[in-house]
Write a structure and sequence with these properties.
heterodimer, A: alpha/beta, Rossmann fold, 14 strands, about 20% strand, B: Rossmann fold, 6-stranded parallel beta sheet, 12 helices, globular
Chain lengths: ~325, ~350
């Protein structure tokens, strides 16, 4: 009989694996003693591993993140948990000024082996300060590794490899993926430095590049499109790591399909999709492209509250299906 | 209870110019302290001079006048402790016994510097003496020092963590978050506020409703002690008990040590005219409160060492500093292709 696990259970498995196998790992952040905060992804860890290793904290994102960075310089492998990315903005100094630069400004004589887990939690009329996904902002910063798992097993295995990587890692998981299911497998030991993007679907007519939840809706959109248009095949590439980005697979795919769409759940201006499009057209001869690259990102406005506006704001499968029709059927 | 008179005198430059009672310190240690203080003072003077004449390319924040605090604290520290500094950290790292050549080479941007030329004066590291790093974002390392406290607590060793902060640093929100976090988690962290009464150009009286920053320790139920940071014996004696207690009881402490910097906020100028309330008269008075002058007079007064020996030691130290500077000037610069190294961890 096949065992299935969900995305949120996979994260929980990742924590347990790390805490069982690495005694220098500890976890710190708001809400860790309450399942209400972080869902099933950390359920009962404090009971299993004790409150000295699973540390719930005052409402102090800045100091708590800095403390995790400091502990990482002194032999610990801490994981900081931010239940919402919006709240993590208080911690921008320790993340950008300290963690990201520590190795460089001391000539490689120290390295903050810290993982900063940030949960994306949006929708449900939560509005502008409870809905942000700021991965592009972190991906802008040299010295940070930024990881955005889409697949269930990646949620676990990339968490483990982030914590075991010697650099500061921003690990971003998305509540909208928590109920995704996949077949359970043994932990795959990955070296984060070598983790690159992965082909989710093989195709010949157009390439879609995305990460995290955007990969989920892209995959769904491709399915919907193919149900009506069986003659087309679409390649889907899941980025997994968005800083630094390895472009090998992306370029190979686009050289084959000659068309591409980047789907990203962040804002369009200076966003991840813009970065990928500009890098791709720099790296290959744009004359091989049969049509202009497409950037499907969020509109440049804060997240609204009213449901009718939310539906306008967030990307949907239908947005992607429409683009596929335009690109493949109407051209 | 500390008397109000004592506290008032601490921030009054016309007071506390007296000599020290040296009974608690051995003769050998007295000489050692005089050497360390003089060494750091003369290094800062050398750096000021070389910055002025253009040999040093980047800004330098000098601690001349403030030497007794790190020398006194470091007296009780060892290489298993974790020490974090800030923008004015030459004295912190030298007091721990780091390499002068490494410091000079770093300030000169050489690849053999403490941070291989990537850091300069404001980003120093020497883990071999417990110095985990200094950075010029004011208050940037306070929470990191609290994190060292967490690491110590996880490993259950008897190390302590030291966070050096200035009186400007306490104005950052993260200072309060850090004190609260250390207090609620019983972490072995000692916050050392070197209160030199100025942040950059601005007098503390114009920035805070009280000149005593230790009031923030009270708010977080952290034990604290207020001392004359220009009295090396007082720093040594106070920090001895505090460091010992922190090792044993795993609870944070805050030491507020009053002092004054002889140079302006940055570089070699005295900056008596660019600040608020920084004037020639108070600078001169603070120079009479000089920790080295007071130690020297104490040593002579108590017939422990005489003037000529003390002067000879100073001359020896200056010669050594000048020689080391000349050696550092011969050190290599980084290669151009080092630009993209060390962004991420690299295997050695």
């Amino acid at each position: 009989m096949t065992n299935y696990i969900t995305y949120s259970e996979a994260i929980l498995e990742g924590f347990k694996y790390l805490l069982d196998n690495h005694k220098d790992v500890f976890v710190i952040g708001q809400g860790l003693w309450s399942p209400w905060y972080v869902g099933n992804t950390m359920r009962d860890l404090d009971k299993l591993y004790g409150k000295k290793r699973i540390i719930d904290t005052p409402v102090s994102e800045n100091a708590v993140t800095g403390a995790a960075i400091g502990a990482s310089l002194c032999g610990s492998k801490p994981i900081v948990v931010h239940p919402r990315m919006d709240f993590m903005l208080y911690a921008m100094d320790p993340i950008i000024n300290q963690a990201a630069k520590w190795s460089y400004m001391f000539g490689g004589k120290a390295n903050p082996q810290v993982t900063i887990r940030s949960i994306v939690n949006r929708g449900g009329e939560q509005g502008a300060q409870h809905s942000q996904i700021l991965h592009s902002l972190f991906a802008h910063i040299p010295g940070l590794r930024v990881v955005m798992p889409y697949s269930v097993l990646d949620a676990r295995d990339l968490l483990i490899s982030s914590v075991l990587c010697k650099d500061p890692v921003i690990f971003i998981d998305d509540r909208w993926l928590y109920d995704e299911k996949d077949e359970s497998k043994e932990v795959e030991k990955l070296n984060l430095e070598e983790v690159t993007s992965r082909k989710v679907l093989e195709g010949n007519d157009i390439t879609i590049i995305s990460s995290g939840y955007s990969t989920k809706i892209s995959k769904n959109a491709i399915k919907i499109f193919n149900e009506a248009n069986k003659n087309y095949s679409i390649e889907l590439i899941d980025l997994r790591v968005i800083n630094p980005i390895n472009y090998d697979l992306i370029l190979k795919s686009i050289c084959k399909t000659k068309r591409f769409i980047v789907v990203d759940g962040g804002w369009k201006t200076c966003g991840l999709a813009s970065e990928i499009i500009s890098s791709v057209v720099e790296k290959l001869d744009p004359n091989i492209l049969l049509s202009k690259p497409i950037n499907l990102s969020l509109k440049n406005c804060p997240a609204p509250s009213a449901n009718v506006l939310e539906r306008e704001y967030y990307l949907s499968e239908q947005d992607i299906v429409s683009l596929l029709k335009r690109e493949l059927l109407d051209s | 209870m500390v008397s109000n008179r004592y506290l008032d005198d601490l921030i009054n430059p016309e007071k506390n110019q007296n000599t020290f009672n040296l009974n608690s310190i051995s003769k050998k240690d007295c000489e050692d302290l005089y050497r360390k203080l003089t060494f750091i003072r003369e290094v800062e003077f050398k750096i000021a001079e070389e910055r002025k004449n253009g040999e040093i390319g980047g800004p330098v924040h000098l601690a001349a006048g403030q030497e007794a605090i790190p020398v006194g604290i470091s007296y009780h520290l060892n290489k298993n402790d974790y020490i974090f500094g800030a923008h004015r950290s030459h004295a912190h790292i030298l007091a721990l016994g780091s390499s002068l050549k490494g410091l000079f080479a770093e300030i000169l941007g050489r690849s053999t510097g403490l941070s291989k030329g990537y850091g300069g004066s404001m980003h120093l590291i020497d883990k071999s003496v417990g110095f985990m790093g200094s950075v010029p974002i004011v208050a940037g390392t306070i929470s990191l020092a609290v994190g060292a406290g967490f690491a110590i607590s996880q490993k259950n060793t008897n190390s302590v963590s030291i966070a050096y902060i200035g009186d400007g640093g306490v104005e950052e929100g993260v200072f309060h978050e850090s004190l609260n976090l250390a207090s609620i988690n019983n972490l072995p962290v000692i916050f050392v506020v070197e209160n030199n009464l100025f942040s950059s150009h601005m007098d503390i009286k114009k920035r805070q409703p009280s000149s005593f920053t230790s009031r923030f320790a009270k708010a977080n139920l952290i034990n604290h002690k207020i001392i004359d940071g220009n009295n090396i014996i007082e720093v040594i004696n106070a920090s001895k008990d505090i460091i010992k207690e922190t090792r044993e009881n795993k609870k944070p402490w805050l030491i507020e040590a009053f002092t004054y910097r002889w140079f302006g906020h940055v570089d070699w100028r005295e900056d008596i005219d660019v600040g608020t309330n920084r004037c020639r008269k108070s600078l001169n008075n603070w120079k009479l409160r000089c920790p080295i002058k007071r130690l020297k007079e104490s040593l002579i007064e108590e017939n422990i060492m005489d003037q000529s020996i003390l002067d000879n030691i100073r001359t020896e130290i200056i010669d050594e500093i000048n020689n080391t500077w000349e050696i550092a000037l011969q050190e290599p610069f980084p290669e151009k292709n080092d630009l993209l190294k060390n962004i991420y961890f690299e295997k050695k």
